[in-house]
Amino acid sequence: MKKLMVGMALTATLATAVTPGFGSIGGNQEKAYAATVTYKVTASKLNVRSGAGTTYGIIGSVVKGQALSVMSKSGSWYKINYNGRMGYVSSDYVQASGTTTPPAESTTYTVTASMLNVRSGAGTNYASIGSVTKGQKLSVVSKSGSWYKINYNGRTGYVSSDYVQASATASPKLVVDSFKTLGNAQQVILVTADNYDTKSAKIQTFEKVDGKWKQVLTANGVLGQKGFALSKKEGDMESPTGKYTIGTAFGRYANPGTKLPYRKITANDVWVDDSKSSLYNTWQQKPANGRWTSAENMDIPAYDYGFVINYNESRTPGKGSAIFFHVGTNYTAGCTATSKEQVVSILKWLNPEKNPVIIQSPVSELDKY
């Protein structure tokens, strides 16, 4: 077989990064929001999604008038704190109230003056609390008029934007950016483990949007009881490594919203694991009537939802059968598993038009892909 609750008065949170070599003054790497801005929902009901786009799964909803804890903005989507997890909502249905504006995403702010005063407020009439020098990187919180609000030695300061150069920086490189074997795949499920012998796995999903890879989800998962197999065999309790296409989605309940072909499991459904049968590694229905001597029952809780990993499509006897991505949190007999919530989220996200693939590998061997 194989709440931080979204409150009614929460305001935007602040996210800054510190660049080594400049103490507490760092290069800002995300579109951060000042605490003076409040974000409220204007739609009667607004979906919260797992990623910045309507192709991502819905993880919940917020209602009109609700205040959001906004972390950053990506295009026309706000990244928010939703019940203690990361979520995304369309900015078209959120009203921002306040006077400050956020700096550009993935931007570095560099001082151009020989010496630039840092003031206690946004204007030359405010007292100087210190200074920064040419070439120094600033941790910019927000912009108000012609003044940048910065993090200065652990306190709030302001500098004139006339003497600061803002320049875009490259986005952090994702692991899939280095893969050479993806072909026309625009969705990738990456399953990794620290080594061959561990049953614990990290599951990440990525999607190519406008020619660039974006990370969608990260979750904990489990593999076969004995970890990964370099060369899998029937009954070895190991999950196969490699790159595979995605097959039929399945479940014991109605289609949860996946775009994949979906098959509802019945009490008679089995997966044949008899290597001597001509139906080896196929989905069949009981009774066997002599067609096989061994088959796995499909009507079990682990298969509440899942999909077929297209492993051993040639149905080579003894090479392994019934390799699925399904529900589970302990270990499997050779499949890959995670929580039901994550399985359903991934099923809703998968789109056959984007030629999704799943890659399973120890971290040390990712350069194969």
Key traits:
30 strands, 1 helix, disordered N terminus, 369 residues, nine-stranded mixed beta sheet, mainly beta
Structure description:
The longest helix is centred in the last third of the chain and has 10 residues, at 340-349. Strand 17 (187-193) and strand 18 form a beta hairpin. This protein has 369 residues and is mostly beta strands. Strands 17, 18, 19, 22, 23, 27, 28, 29 and 30 form a nine-stranded mixed β-sheet that branches. The model is unreliable at 1-36 and 99-104 (pLDDT under 50). It has one helix spanning 340-349; strands spanning 38-41, 45-49, 58-63, 67-68, 70-74, 77-82, 85-90, 94-97, 107-111, 115-119, 128-133, 137-138, 140-144, 147-152, 155-160, 164-168, 187-193, 200-209, 212-222, 228-229, 239-240, 242-251, 262-264, 269-272, 283-285, 295-297, 305-309, 324-327, 336-338, 357-362. It is elongated. Helix content is 3%, strand content 41%. It is built from one helix and 30 strands.
